[in-house]
Amino acid sequence: MKINSAFSALLAASSIAVASSVLAPAQAITITPTGATAGEPSGQTLYQAAISRTNDIGKSFDINWNLAPGSNTGKLSQPLSATSTWTITNFTTSALDLQIRLTNTTATTPQDIAARLTSMAFGVNPEANGIVFTKNDGITTDTDVFSAALTGLTAGNFNNIDIDVCFIGGNNCQGGGNGGLRSNQTDILNLKIKGNFTSDTAFLQFFAARFQTSQGSYVLAGNGTPGTPVPEPITMLGLGVGTVGLGALKRRYGNKKAKVTV
To answer: What residue range is the signal peptide (predicted)?
Structure first.
């Protein structure tokens, strides 16, 4: 038996182990129910996303809004829906930077109910004390219909819910006017949230979206899912170290024969 054969087997096993490590995803952003409910119709579960300054810069999560016609939705004849992806672009002890891709996915068939997403609001914990919103970001594929304000949302049974930031497509966070994100339109929102973020973790919460339609007004509570995890960078270092170590082993023993007792 040759050491070279043992080396080959060791190399193959190590390659599998390291490859598995490389493909192992980083931990996703955690999204959980807050235990509170709100919305129009009432009783919708509210969620929060836990953002870690140490682990989550560059990661993303999704918040989606859906309301199907039912006994508690009045005249609504077809579903309302919207999607969003929230990416953490930077996070320091004084500011949390986000890029949010928001799309009104409400269908216009079999009936166009003229659904406009007129505002989207959320809470921040620790509480936000300022925002910087970039509207003219140079991106030409979005609509730039929203402004942003540090404000509370008092409609839609969110009266006792701590809302900090509202993106406004109508007259104000409660709606009004003819503005908003129409079906199949997308807006990309770049936001810096200022606050006292000395703890490693901050929470984005509640995620309320207001829709104005030809069949009434509705406030939806968003439900969340983690975004696509990314590989941990440290595993690439492990790959390099493992390869160098195995190379040194081969150089030391080469093709020497091993003495085998049978």
So the answer is: 1-19
